[in-house]
Amino acid sequence: MAVNLRGRHLLTLKHHTPYEIQFLLDLSRDLKNKKRAGIRGDLLAGKNVALIFEKPSTRTRCAFTVATIDEGGHPEYLGKNDIQLGHKEDVADTARVLGRMFDGIEFRGFKQSVVEDLAKFSGVPVWNGLTDQFHPTQVLADFLTIQEEFGTLKGIKLVYVGDGRNNMANSLMIGAAKMGMHFVIGSPKSLFPEDGLVAECRKIAQDCQSGAVIEVLDDPKAAVKGAHAVYTDVWASMGEEDKLAERKALLQPYQVNKELMAAIGREEAIFLHCLPAVKGYEVMEDVFESRCSRVFDEAENRMHTIKATMVASIGNL
């Protein structure tokens, strides 16, 4: 099936078909092989990319920067104190200015409405580098890592343990529904994902005929049983630091440690984390540094999947 992502935004994975997601993963693999062979490209030659960051970043900033330069483009970092976004100038006006100067815009910040308004008014492709609700570029990196490990996504059991309402749980659930995975959230009932999103993801799976299974459980050991991959994230996201003590008490049973990994019952299971990790909280050091950990493969894959996303939407293909 022919896939054309020219001019497309990446705000969440809701708007991409399974074929389009797989196309991005295949393109990521090809671009990764190209980089490892030492081949510099020109697929973004003459392209200027605005990188808007309200929140600090290691992987997202470096991935967008290196990916753009690798293919001959120019990235311009715009921190929260560098431009007037949301201060003296509303989002719509900023979007219209940047859209006349840049070929694509990345946004990493708080409100999903901001990235959606950038897409609405800029006239150029906009990519969500993280908001409080969704983190689609991370999911692409996660899926590339899983695909490299197991050769497929379909039928893979991916279990997320921790805060079941955060942007990673939301985004993984959407992606898993599209790609025919068995996705389980293991979380306290008070941190279960929104019922509406769970229902939407189950409908996505049905509409796509992907065969995906979506479950939400409050028993962490029951959740991880038979998992191919176990995923976690920080217990208090950026902006929620004041809730850390409360979350630590609530989420301690969901810590990824040797005991929880032993409950999987599958020898080849892997551990994933979007990073940065607070070791000793959501994951223990002996799991993070174990042979089952793929967190740094996953981190590297941010660059390859982000490169594929930009190339597919604004590249010289």
Task: Note down, in words, how this protein is organized.
- This protein has 317 residues and is an alpha/beta fold.
- The protein has twelve helices and nine strands.
- A five-stranded parallel sheet has the order 7-6-5-8-9.
- Strand 5, helix 6 and strand 6 form a beta-alpha-beta unit.
- Helix 1 crosses helix 5, helix 5 crosses helix 6 and helix 6 packs parallel to helix 7.
- It holds the Pfam family OTCace.
- One of its GO terms (biological process) is L-arginine biosynthetic process via ornithine.
- InterPro entries: Asp/Orn_carbamoyltranf_P-bd (IPR006132), Asp/Orn_carbamoylTrfase (IPR006130), Asp/Orn_carbamoylTrfase_sf (IPR036901), Asp_carbamoyltransf_Asp/Orn-bd (IPR006131), Orn/put_carbamltrans (IPR002292), OTCase_ArgI (IPR024904).
- It is found in: Cytoplasm.
